[in-house]
Each structure stands twice: as structure tokens, then as C-alpha cells.
Amino acid sequence: MDRRISLNGQWMIRAFDGQHGPPESFIGPDADETLFFDGYVPAEAHLDMMCAGLIGDVNVGLNAQAARWVEECVWVYRRTFEAPAEVLAARAAWIVFEGLDLNAVIYLNGKEAARHANAFTPCRVSVAGKLEQGVNTLAVRIESGLYSVGDKPSTPYNPHSLDNLLHKRQWLRKPQYSFSWDWNPRLVNVGLWKPVWLEWADVARIEAMVVFPTLAADRSRATIHCRLYIDNVTGADALGKVRARCAETGAAVEQDVKLPSGTWRQDLAIDVADPRLWWPRGSGAQPLYTIEAEVEAGGQVLDRAKRRTGIRSVEIKQPPHPESGRYFIVEVNGRPIFAKGGNWVPPDMIYARVGAEKHRTLVRMACEANFNALRVWGGAHFADHAFLDACDEAGIIIWHDFLYACSKYPLDDVDFMNNVKAETTFAVRDLAHHPSLAVWCGNNEIEWGDWDWGYNAIKPLPHYGLFHHIIPTILKNEDPSRPYWPSSPYSPDHEHPNSKTVGDQHPWDVSLGHFSEDFWGYRGDVSRFPNEGGVLGASSPATVRQFLPEGQRRIHSPAWVFHDNAANFMRQPLLCSRALIHWIGRVPENMGFDDYLYYSALLQAEGLKEYVDNFRRRMFSSSSAIFWMYNDSWPVSHGWTIVDYYLRRKLAYHPVRRAFQPVSVVPAIESDSVLIVGVNDSTADWRGEVRYGLADLAGGLPLDRRQQAAIPQNSAAVLAAIPRADWDRAGLQRTIVFALLLDGGRTIAQNRLFGEIFRNMHWPAASPSVTRDGDQAVFASPAFAWGVAIDIDGEAALPDNAFDLLPGIEYREPCLAERHLPQILRVGNLA
User: Fold this and answer.
1) How does pLDDT run across 74-87, given as a tens digit for each residue?
2) Residue 429: which of 484, 380, 477 has the closest Cα?
3) Distance CA 338, CA 350 (A)
4) Which residues of the chain have pLDDT under 70?
5) Do 226 and 209 touch, CB atoms closer than 8 A?
6) If you write DSSP's letter for every residue of 367-405 in order, what string do you get?
7) pLDDT of residue 817
8) Sign, Cα dihedral of 98, 99, 100, 102
9) What does the pLDDT read at residue 183?
10) In this predicted structure, what is the pLDDT of residue 165?
11) Residues in contact with 748: Cβ distance below 8 Å, sequence separation at least 6, in sequence order
12) What is the distance between the alpha carbons of residues 124 and 470, in angstroms, rounded to a whole number?
């Protein structure tokens, strides 16, 4: 049944710069290969040049700048293979390139066979009648896309970007972030970045298998739709059968069909009674169903395919909000879901080297941080199946942008329009079976650009029909099982796209707006569905030392600046420098290197905690706390993430994890009170005790109250309140508000609230201790201890880190008897 032969493995590659022979002279069987290097497929030209020793590790120092020549060359990939007799005799045969990046001309035995210009879609090259007995030579002439857009207009589509005059990324259907973003350098990939194989058929093959569920309103029954796109290669109609079966239930459907010549669609439906529903993490289990399909003719099975799916419904609910605007709530199986998580970007700037294991590790770490959602941002890739498989299994729901970001796009060009229509159709069919994929979104920030960034000038809104007509029409026809949202951010009713009170939001008032260094600006943010906003902070010392060469391990060295986030330079002094001056009253240039890294990271942790706490305590007036961003594409000086490129947990990781825990407590200022808000997004009501009051930094609890508390499941509730005047009298510079949730006397959640910025607080010297109590480490301090770090580099798989110690109140974490007690490495107190 397997009618594929892999063409992966060793190839020969060579770069052409226009001065040392034309690439077309090196595509035929007789080409001189002595000028070629050993290459590998699937891979990418930078990787091969690193293996050949011609460029250094692009993650280190300034090597990525020195490697710019790689993207500026035309490359020839070539290899030979022998076609088996059954392939030579087959009615149809193809060479399939799953990923070509980007502009490629494919040659077989010296003759042009096909052209392709989309890194997101496969290229299927018909080779029937073109293969030779014995040795065949396959060659690919490929360039990064820069040459193909040399004569294309730039300014009408991206008038505010200087570097766009060089790369004109809006014309190129490849990951936009590779042309540089604030968090990623310019490193324009080029090469055969996905597998290649030889494939053949005699009668028919399954070109695509699209699987998606529909769920009855009362959720007592479901239908799993199996849509087969079948390619009859015979050139004549034929009779056959198609069938589909659910492995878990045994339910099957079979249908006699006429197989028309060419590609056609056949829909099958499997009914499921009392379906086991797929739920987001924390709201239920994640059962999966395996659907197997096959096509038969003449009593012979011609092709088989298999997909794994889950049964659930997804809706976006937007009823009127009693205060202003509308709610924005994602419901799964009729249950409102508070979305907790971050933005996902490719885990490498060379995306060919991201394997399934890294995807799974990052999803596991997201689960450990209490995520139930990730947003796949629109300037990168369609989600990898390994990533979505892991999300399917873990219950991580995905908001998935289509691949357009921060630019106008030339939909006024017919060839471009047809290219992206084919791309959209392929992606929707390819990913439909994943239950974790909850929402399709048209783009990142382009609707915002239409309103505020001059996208209605010169070529006014050329892309508007793509997001408001073409994509939604394709989704309606191909996969009606999940909602579509035109842009992010976007507001209905012709409101501003980033309105706080309707639609989804990117709350960049903090960091990039008028609250540039003041992350307490989040405290009053009423955004209905915030899914992009963040705080910059330094990477861990181990990561910084790994990418900075000897002699450059200092802030503002050339390599430090090259790896720094571009948003840091939006104002002077630098954003992260202003943050340290504002919050702790210290000038970065006067700090020791390790001190700077610690406090910058600690302030990022504070900022992200404020983001999460603010929106969670408003549940479901706000229905998400999705921050920018979860993971890195390369090692950085300052970054937005909580997990860095090397998979180290930044200092913010555990504060975010605690803020996202299912049952939590948040002190928050509202008018003349400090409210103690309990949050519970679990599936059971919570009952226990709330302890709250005022803690003196120097020691003691001038206000210490306890009372019984209840938090209904999937809700937030005010548990207690402290008059603001009481706190004022105690002194905002000396005291903080604290709150704990207790279950049987055991602390399950702890939080605190500052009322004065850190540099103005009366900090005591901290002298925390750690002792053992059975299989627990017990931390304690007579005075408040801020940001207690027991792992600076983020390499240890610890249950907790970067936590606070309240005066006289124990803080416990698991520590098995065979493990050494953790050591306290840093405390943030500014004494």
C-alpha cells in the first residue's frame, strides 16, 4: 500500500552570487559537482553552511549578520535516484516537495518540470513519463524570494518600514518574522525545509482527508464529518467504494461511488451517540477519536488515510455588557472558557530545525505553567502537526491567525490572490481535524493598521476583501466547525479595532504606550479579550552568557545590542533602562551585570503578574489573559517571554504559573477599597478559608483577618475588602496588602499588592531561611522578602521559584528526602 519512496537525506548544494557561473549550468546530469558542498534535506542553507564551517552559529554573537550573504544567493540543490520498475510503469507519478522556501524551479534530468513560490504549501510535480530507467537527476534552483520581488512596488504597501524597501516581505508567502521583528533578527531562510518523496498511483489516491465534528445542541449526539478529496488518475470514470470508520466506536459508513476523472470530493458522516467530549485543559478530559478512511476499486484498496480528532463545539459569544460594549467569551461545549496563556512564535529562526520533541517540550512547559490557551501569531507559520497533536492531547486551545501581520498585502495582484487562496484552502483542510484549533483569525493588527497606520493611503486597503470575504468563504465551504474572527485586534459594530469594550484587544498601553514603563497601568484595563500585551525583561544569566562571546558580556556591547529587542529602543532612555530607574531607582550602567539581569527579570515577572491578575479577577467581564509572548525564536538580551530559546525558565515563569493556577486570589484596588477577589476556573466549587490583611515590610501583620470563603466554579468572587483609608493610615511605603486561600489549614494560593513603587518603599534587609519538614522545604522570614530566587539560570525543574515570603508566614514547596534543600540565591529587597 505504501507508494512512496523518500528522497530525504544527503543532497549536493551550491550557492550562486551572479559572478561564478549561472545556476542553470549546474542542474543537468552532467554538471560538475566538485564545486558543490554536502547538504541535507529536509534542512536549510544556513544549516548546511554552518555544517561546512562557512558561517558560525547564527545564535551566537554577530554571526547572523555575517551570514547575510546566504539569503542573497541563488542555490542549487541536486541529487540522483533510481526509480523502481513499478514507478516507471505507473499511470501517474509525482515528486512531492512538502516545503520549498521560496521561489523554486524544479528540474528532472536537466528539463524544467515545475515552479513553486509558497513556503506554506506543498509542491506536487508530475513526473509520469519523465523518469528514466537507471539514474535520474533531480535539481532545484531556489532563492529566498528577494530576487523575485526586486521590481515589485514596496512603498504603496508598507510605507513606514525602511527595511521593506529591501525585502518587500508582503509579496512573499513565507514567514514574515524572518525579515526581522522586534524579537527576531533578519535571517531569511532558503532551502528545502520539509521532506521530499517520490509517489505513484495507478487508479486513484486520497489527496486530502478533512475531518471535523458537529455537536448536537443538547450534546447527546455528534457527527464526525469525513471529507475525502480523491484524485482519479486513469483519465476515465470508474466505479468504486469509499468507507470511513471510527476505531474507538466501531461505527463505519460505506458508499458506492462513481470515481470521476480528476480530483473530486466525497463526504461521509459517522454518527456518534453519547459522545465523549473534548475539553480545554482544566475543564474536562481530552478523549480523541481515530477516523480511518479508504478508497477501493475493482476489489482492491487503492489508498488509506487516518486522522485523529476530538468532538467539541466552539462559539464566540458577544452579548451586551452591562457597563459598556459587549462581552467576548469563547465557549467550548457551551461552557465559558477563561483563556490563560501566551503567544506562540516559531521556536527557532531557522524553522527547519524545530523537531517534534521541542514542540512537545514547549507544550508540556505551557501546561506546567497552567496554560489552557496559546495564540499562534500571524507573522510566522501554520502550526506544525506535532505541536497541534500535543495540544490536542493536553487540552490547549489554539487561536490561530492566518499568516499576515503588520502590513498591507497586494490582493490587488491576481497572481498573489490566487496564491493565497490556494494556501488558505490547503491549510484549512490540513489542520481541520485538530480539536485544539478553536478559532481562526484573519491576521495580526492589519485592521488596526487600516484605521490608524495609513493603510488607506496610496493603495487603500488592498487586502480588505481577503479577510472579510475570501477567507471566511473558504472556511464556510471547507470547515464550518469553528468560528472565524477577521483580525486581531478587531471590534464589531465599526468601533475602533482596539476598543477596550468590544472584540479582542492588544493592550499595548503598557510597554509601548503612555504607560511605557509603568505596568501598574494594567490595573485599570477592562479589555474584554486581551490576547497580546507584555513586558520586557532580561534573559537568564546562563542564556546571556551562552550567546555573548567573551569580551562582550556586558550590557550595550555590540553583540548584546544585536540580540536585544528592538522595542527596547523605541524611546530614550531605553525602555528597560527606564523601567529600572522608575521602579527601583537604579541606573543600569552603574549596576553589576548579574544585578542588572536579576532585577530586569524580576520586574518583568512583576509586570506579567499584574497583567494576569488584573484580567483574571475580572472574569468573565474579561475572558482571557493571553500575554505577549510565551517562547523565543532565538536567544535574546531582553525578551517578552517566560521560556527562552534554550528552554530555560525565565524568572517570570513561576510567577505567571502561580497567577494562572486554577484557584487563585487577587487583591485589587477598586475606588475606596482593596478587594480580595477569589478566582476559580475549575469544574468544582471551592470552599475554604481566606486570610488577608496588611503586612509590614519590616515584620508583623498590623491587620490579620480570617473568614470562611466560597468561590463557585468557573467564576470570580469578592471574598473580602479592606478600606483604602486603613491602608493609607498604615502607610503605603511600609505595608502591603496580603491574601491567602487556605484549605484545611494548608495554603493553596498566596498573593500581595503594593501601593507604592518599589524604590519608595521602606525596605528591610531580608534574612530568609529554609528548613526541612519531611518531604517539604519550608521557607520563612521575619521580614517581607521579595522575589526569592532559588534558581537564577532557570535550568532546574523546580516546583516554584521567584516567590515572596510574608512576615512570619511559612512558604512550602515539595522537596523529596533524597534531594538537597534548595539554596536561596537572590532576594529583591532594596535594602
Assistant:
1) 999 999 999 999 99
2) 477
3) 33
4) 1
5) yes
6) HHTT--EEEE-TTS-PPPHHHHHHHHHHT-EEEEE-S-B
7) 79
8) positive
9) 98
10) 85
11) 663, 688, 741, 742
12) 24
